[in-house]
Amino acid sequence: MPESATVGVFDSGVGGLSVLREIRGLLPSESLLYVADSGHVPYGEKSADFIRERSHHIAEFLLDQGAKALVLACNTATVAAVADLRERYPQLPIVGMEPAVKPAAAATRSGVVGVLATTGTLKSAKFAALLDRFAADVRVVTQPCPGLVERIEAGDLMGPDTRELLAGYVDPLLAEGCDTLILGCTHYPFLRPLLHQMVPDSVSLIDTGAAVARQVQRLLDSHGLLAEGSAEPCRFWSSGNPAAMQEVLPVLWGEPAQVDKLPA
Questions:
Q1: Which among 177, 110, 167 is positioned nearest to 137, based on CA atoms?
Q2: Count of domains in the chain?
């Protein structure tokens, strides 16, 4: 696999663009591919078998496009599929996501941490294991956030509907004394500007996008796959409506780009 090969990233929708931005910022020489499985968003309400099936399909597509590494930029897909993908492709660098329980537990001063996440993530055994491992000395208050992913998919990051929906999830966490909020879905970092308007400055907002980018760098380096020179423009696919994703790319990615239809 040449160093010039691409890094493939996928999510249930456009949320993984928050991770893609971190990878591009840290590794500007890497050429990137991104698949939004927006035809099946959100994953949080889907069965594990369905998510595994979608993840295998998308992984095979990205490998066919020349990916030298895969990033599951989705907490729910990581829970359901990362172990299977690592077993199927043992030589391939594969990076998954997990909620930032460890850094949040270290950061809290009140001893109360709030978690904004999808239902699927909060119900997973992996999340329970993270709590057992890293959060024994703090109180963790979880908050499922149905409907929030769909607002972000639509590019509505600051509108009144999004604000009302988000307040209904955040206010109870603040009332519980949370001084640290985990953004436990890759969609949610796009709501940081709105959250900063809604929570006191003393409340920390934590996600794992930057940590994932560093792990991609470590794995590529250990496999001798770090690229040098100039990267190719990022390529995008969607299993949903490519035009809809193309419309929100300038907001979420920071620049316009062509979006192609993911083959069925």
A1: 110
A2: 2
Show the domain range for 215.
6-97+209-261
Task: Tell me the average pLDDT across 146-172.
Answer: 96
3-state secondary structure of 159: coil
Percent residues over pLDDT 70 in the chain: 98
Considering the domain architecture, whether residues 105 and 198 belong to the same structural domain is answered as: yes
For the question of residue 74 being annotated catalytic, the response is: yes
Bridge-based pairing state of the strands 32-36 and 94-95: unpaired
Question: What's the pTM value of the predicted model, to 2 decimals?
Answer: 0.94
The Cα 103–Cα 108 span in angstroms is 9
- 191 in a domain, yes or no? yes
Q: Which residue has the tokens 């971190």?
A: 22
Residue 66 belongs to some domain of the structure: yes
| Marked catalytic residue, from 145, 178, 185, 234 | 185
44 and 170 part of one domain:
no
| CATH code where residue 92 lies | 3.40.50.1860
Specify if 1 maps to a domain. Answer: no
Mean model confidence pLDDT for the chain: 95
- Which position among 74, 145, 178, 234 bears the catalytic label? 74
pLDDT band, residue 121 (cuts 50/70/90): confident
- Of 175 and 43, the structure prediction assigns the larger pLDDT to 175
pLDDT number for residue 179: 98
